[in-house]
């Protein structure tokens, strides 16, 4: 698991910019992040870089807690950042805080 827990709290997006099932790419301090809103309203934030060959996870297909990379279909858990099945690798995922409609990431 590649969970980034420490860091500075930075505003990333407003909740109304996200839609369930669709990723959103955001650039923060030179780092490209992929934001996802879950069906329960929670928000997941990962590096926008597949652990396989760097595919843009924000453009992947979302299913439950997983996103499928648009390049070669690796299945990545949005809770842990881990590749699933026989695939090996992790993508950094970040601590998220939601205040009202404002979404913050600790980066
Ligand atoms: S780059 Fe994501 S599966 Fe290959």
TrEMBL record:
Keyword line: 2Fe-2S, Iron, Iron-sulfur, Metal-binding, Nitrate assimilation, Oxidoreductase
Family annotation (Pfam families): Rieske (PF00355)
GO MF, one example: nitrite reductase [NAD(P)H] activity
Keyword Iron: yes
Membrane-spanning segments: none
GO process annotations (BP): nitrate assimilation
PROSITE patterns: RIESKE
Source superkingdom: Bacteria
Matching InterPro entries: Rieske-like_NirD, Rieske_2Fe-2S, Rieske_2Fe-2S_sf
Coiled coil: none
Record flagged with keyword rRNA-binding: no
Residue intervals of the Rieske domain: 10-105
Name of the protein in its database record: Nitrite reductase (NAD(P)H) small subunit
Provenance organism: Shouchella clausii (Alkalihalobacillus clausii)
